[in-house]
Amino acid sequence: MLNKQYAIFNKQYTITFAPPLLCALCVKQTSITQYICRMIQEEEQQEEIFEEEISDTDKTALLEISKWTRLISVIGFAIGSFIVVIMLFSGAQILQTMATSIPSMKGMYPVLVAGFFVVFFIAAMVLYFLYKASQLLLQGIHQQNNALLSEAFVYLKNFFIAVIAFTGLQLIINLSNLI
Known about the structure:
Elements lengths: L1 E7 L2 E7 L1 H9 L1 H22 L5 H46 L7 H35 L2 H33 L1
Antiparallel strand pairs: 1-2
């Protein structure tokens, strides 16, 4: 191992070279300097992105978004827990009645049970995305941390992707029933 120190733009950088790479890199000293300059430029670009301040109107708007998304997700979790309690006490009877009342669903009781669990857990995952986005928005605003805000928007993006997928699936199911 070989440690070399480089001073570029008044900053010290130490690069560790492994023996197989040492011979190739010693030949081209200029490529090392170019590589370090590229790393420094990328680092400075990232710093410049996160140095911008969020205005007060944007902060209040993000706080409102955080409050509403938290409210919607908590209501969704409450409805989900209510459904779980109902299914614990009379779920088997409800699904059995559904399976026997529709003539084409005879013998499909296990499919209904599996379908219920799949839909329930996917809905819980979607609500989790919404709740996590709400928490990260709130933390990012209070701590003035743009990384937390970015992560919150990733969770919101995942939430909207899941909602669009559910909507598209429901649209396909409804259109197939028309045919």
